[in-house]
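Today's session is about reading a structure prediction critically. Students often jump straight to the picture, but the first step is always the sequence itself: look for stretches that repeat, for charged clusters, for runs of hydrophobic residues. Only then move on to the predicted structure, which in these notes is written as discrete structure tokens rather than atom positions. Here is the chain we will use throughout the hour.
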Amino acid sequence: MTEWADNRQSAFSFSFDDGFISQYENVKNILNQNDFPATYFILPPFLTDSLPGIWRYGTWPMFLEMYNENYELASHSLNHPDLTQLPIGDTLTPNTIHHELYHSKKMINERTSSEYCISFAYPFAIHNVLVDSLTSLYYESSREVGDVANQSSLVGMDWFKLKSNQVEFDLPRDSLQDDLDELNTFINWIDNSIQNGTWGIHLAHEVVPYAELNDLLNQGAYHPIANEWLILLCDWLEGESDQNKIWIETIGNVTKYIKERDSYNYYIISKSNFKIEIELTDTLNNAIYNHPLSAFIAVPDEWDFVLVEQGNETEVLESFYTDSMQLVFADVIPDGGLIKLTKYEPNFVTNENNNDPQFFSLSQNYPNPFNFSTSIDLVILKDSFISLRVHDALGNNVATLVNKELPAGNYNFKFKATGLASGIYYYSLNTGRNYLSRKMILLK
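Below is the predicted structure for this chain, in token form.
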């Protein structure tokens, strides 16, 4: 199993506290431009069902919309108290630690359906050994504030001391230029995390256009961020992500990945030149821990293409040769069912001159060779789950252009080779039943 998903060098998570309306109006749109997820630590009683809401807080429909777009909804307690000043209490007694922890989680779970609320952030980032212990009864991890990144492996109560970097801005903030020192410092912090292979977490609250920043500061907002600042950060992160340097994911999913990766066992049930069967297990709660792990799996030398099946998921992968072994790079889920690998004979079908989508067709990229950017046209036969990926010569995924259900039709995708070295790359269309692949050349 790789240390981080997709064999990335490091991990990074955005997190935003309290459930402010600006997180829906501004953060969502900015992160969506780069397909970056985030964790929102909300105060459930402060979210209303409609506007006007409470003060600057958002609404449940806003945050549920983001949840349905694969953002994580996590708990920041019910009322934002200093938990260390509350009695232990129980789940039936308000203004106690148990009540704050249990009911904030319960309110989120009642509004969502596909997963549990598993992440918590300490109000005011204040906690102690007792609070940590009680938090561990309800959550899988909890976040505090700290200027160091988190290690790639954590054990025991370390999960309830996740460090997050809260950018604090020096005054005056009379122009966006005044905030660039903090941006450069934060980028250097993330870059150091990349070099060390660690997990950096960003902590922020409100995000507004720079023109609205001073008004928010005058209202007492705590170190709000300008839209323009966040856009610059995301642009830099996109470049690092395009180079496979960083995995950007929610705190909950990174938590799942690390715990699954550090607790899995595998058993080869059968192995022949025709079929390999593997059982992958862990000792974790399967209702929570169901995130795929990235794995290199050895296959026979003559298997150029491999059909990987687990549960209801199927994927055709192209194998590659490295370190004296033929390998495929696959995503697999512990306790997700028997993993079956078989040699696959792809149905290479192309129809370059017919725009009627009655065939699967993957056209040669144009221009080719190319410098920095190129276009890829494809045609799909019928409504299908489509994966269009770019790999280097060793089989490493360097870009995912699309990975979702698409209706039948003609499509054009732009590929930007940001940060990639000159050389030969492959782009492949995988529908689960058909696999089409072509070679392209990057010249810089």
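Discussion point for the tutorial: DSSP finds eight helices and 25 strands in the chain.
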